[in-house]
Amino acid sequence: MVGAGVAGLTTALELPSDADVVVLCKTAIGSGAATAWAQGGIAAALGTDDAPALHAADTMRASAGIADAHAVDILAGEAPERIDALRSLGARFDATLGLEAGHGHRRIVKAGGDATGAEVLRTLVAAARARPNVRVIEYAHADDVALDDGRACGVYAHDVRTGEAFVVRSGAIVLASGGCGHLFRYTTNPAEATGDGIAIAARAGSVMADMEFVQFHPTALAVDRDPLPLVTEAIRGEGAVLVDETGERFMPAIHPDAELAPRDVVARAIFDRRQAGHTVLLDAREAVGDAFPEMFPTVFASCMQAGIDPRVVPIPVTPAAHYMIGGVATDDRGRSSIAGLWACGETGATGVHGANRLASNSLLEALVFARRVAGDIAGAPGLEDAVTIVARPDDPLVDDRDEIERLRVAMYAFVGVERTRAGLKAALALVAGLRARPDAVSATLDNLTLVGKLIAESALAREESRGTHFRSDFPATDAAYAHRSYVRIEPTRE
After folding, report:
1. Radius of gyration of the chain measured on its C-alpha atoms
2. Cβ neighbours of residue 46 under 8 Å, at least 6 residues apart?
3. Residue-range domain boundaries for the chain
4. pLDDT in tens, 435-474
5. CATH number of 401-486
6. Residue 37: pLDDT over 90
7. Exactly one of 236, 263, 268, 462 is catalytic; which is it?
8. What 3-state DSSP class applies to 485?
9. Alpha helix (H) residue ranges in 168-287
10. CB 113 within 8 A of CB 75
11. Do strands 341-343 and 173-175 pair parallel, antiparallel, or not at all (unpaired)?
12. How many other C-beta atoms lie within 10 A of the C-beta of residue 26?
């Protein structure tokens, strides 16, 4: 198991209790996972006026026409039981359901107001620690998939503190290492979100899907921090409005749902306003006001740390890279195109989000498809062998932080909220130069440049605008592109 967020830990816990499970975690367990940063919640049709079919319909509507309907039905249909499973493990959820953009009903299961991800991760970490068959190797960076005659048989890894290298041998490899938000200068993701699972699957020759679709959250706190604190969509769900520095509310003129329009619409509106020289602010003074500390304690704390009291002044916001929709192409059981290799969570791409993810379907996707991965592995013949760990020559530790920062700035500028052919080619030229360096590069830069290349090339090939992918030189949606995209590179590691 590569990754110790919601997808990795759920997979580990759903495997049989007598299975030998090893989880590689790039930091100390419980930290570094984007799971803990998820504020909004988990979408599930639990209300008396709601149903999975309605949840599925909202998901399809948000997807800009290319979500996999079968995957969407699985997601919405299995959502309620996934909430029940978390409760049985000890998760403490709020009593009321929230509303977020794109949802026709209140169906957002929350914890601590805006600390849902933290509560989910706390629950899963505690459960994993109580399972004697689950071994967690902390500070372990997965470098590549080991292959034997085209089948995945292990993972090459190294200790991020010392460079000490090893290989984990197993008949079932699961990539659940999250997304690649750190590829962009402005992101709400932790620094550990460097696309590791996506990159190592691509180098192994796995088919990748939907790489051009990267979701930018409309409202990150616009302050001098990296990453940027998230300002949850649930605040807009409670009635907060977007205004510029003059107090003008601009979203009603752009979309009939105003602030609760799909994320891509709101993100572009804010981006364009800022590009025109305006400051964009989220005004929650009337909608939330004095209740802010109780309703949204995480956002309130971030604002106060930045010297902003959201009870009395509007919150400055900006779009930031938030979620990787594309990734390792999988079926509805998390199987990649490589035998013995599964992927789930943000690393995988089931097609459930199409071109634009519906709010609060991310933790849900990880929970639903991680369980399906575990079930598939448990039912596969010949995978009962114990996991073995073997040392190998140490990897060099390389400091290329300056190069990574150059890449991040270029990716946000040219492969971000709005894209053009010229900008995409500029980004690809920079990536090519970084990948052609004669000296050694770190595993992080290697992974970031590969994922950046795949995103930019896929964005260049899609000459239309759809969902999170907006080409200002091709601003219309083209029916000829009403399909998912796939790409595969020849294996570079064996």
Report:
1. 21
2. 80, 83, 97, 107, 109
3. 6-213+325-392, 214-321, 401-486
4. 888 777 888 999 999 999 999 999 999 999 999 999 999 9
5. 1.20.58.100
6. no
7. 263
8. coil
9. 196-203, 234-237, 263-275
10. no
11. parallel
12. 26
pLDDT tens for residues 300-309?
999 999 999 9
Please name the amino acid found at residue 493: R
Identify whether the C-beta of residue 50 lies closer than 8 Å to the C-beta of residue 415: no
What one-letter code names the amino acid at 158?
H
Provide, for the chain, the percentages of residues in helix, strand and coil under a 3-state DSSP scheme, each rounded to the nearest 5. Answer: 35, 20, 45
Amino acid at 474: F
HSE-CB at 57 with a 13 A cutoff on CA atoms is: 8
Whether the pLDDT of residue 265 is over 70: the answer is yes
**249 assigned to active site:** no
Q: Which one of 3.50.50.60, 1.10.540.10, 3.20.20.70, 2.40.160.40 gives the CATH number of domain 6-213+325-392?
A: 3.50.50.60
Name the pairing type of β-strands 327-329 and 348-349: parallel
> Given this model, what pLDDT does residue 382 score?
57
Domain 214-321 has CATH 3.90.700.10: yes
Helix residue ranges, H only, 346-420? 362-378, 401-414
pLDDT interval class at 130 (50, 70, 90): very high
**Residue indicated by tokens 């030229």:** 429
Helix axes 362-378 and 69-89, enclosed angle (nearest 10): 90
Say which amino acid occupies 387. Answer: V
> Cα dihedral angle (397, 403, 405, 411), rounded to 10 degrees?
-120
Amino acid at 22: V
In whole numbers, what is the pLDDT of the chain averaged over residues? 93
**Spatial separation of the C-alpha atoms in residues 349 and 337, rounded to whole Å:** 12
- Beta-carbon contacts of 87 under 8 Å, excluding residues fewer than 6 positions away, are 93
